[in-house]
Amino acid sequence: MFEWITGLVESSGYIGIALLMLLENVFPPIPSELIMPLAGFTAARGQLGLVGVIVAGGIGSLAGGLLWYGIGRWLGLERLKRLAARHGRWLTLSPSDLDDAQAFFTRHGGKAVLFGRLVPGVRTLISVPAGIVAMPLPAFLLWSGLGTFVWTALLAGAGYLLQSQYETVSAWLGPVSNVIVGAIVLYYLYRVVTFRPEGGRPKGA
């Protein structure tokens, strides 16, 4: 994968970076932790501009987040509630959990999207609940855009400063990302095992 990413960045420039970051949001095994430091290193060699690299990466990543936001809007809260009533264990959600999530996003949606876009493994997922609870599109674009461009700027800047040592960034962030994703998977399995339908919960729970 490293050689493929390297070849695409070198041959396609800004368009290639934007495309890779779009794919990274749609197909998470393509890691931004490798794409953006490599793009920053390419800028350091004078083949691309650092600002252009950050903008291209941010646009591609934001487009991917917008795709998942659209899927969440299409799914909608009421449809998801019906699914939760039938398949709550596998979704690890009950209809009342979704009401709580809607209330949370009403109060803290901007901060949740902003910081979610900075966390590996959560960066893509945070767009879905934002769409499901119908977070206003301008607000989603604002907060998601801020988080996205901060993330791409940090990675590209690290690659630019480290130059030939840019692989150090991906070597460090890669294991951290794997730990976060692993923790998310374990938490999901825990939720599946311990899930109790609303009708089977203690009164007042």
TrEMBL record:
Residue span(s) of domain VTT: 30-160
Keywords: Cell membrane, Membrane, Transmembrane, Transmembrane helix
Membrane topology, record value: Multi-pass membrane protein
Membrane-traversing stretches: 12-30, 50-71, 114-134, 140-162, 169-190
Main location as per UniProt: membrane
Protein name, as recorded: DedA family protein
Subcellular localization(s) per the UniProt record: Cell membrane
A Pfam match: VTT_dom
GO cellular component, one term: plasma membrane
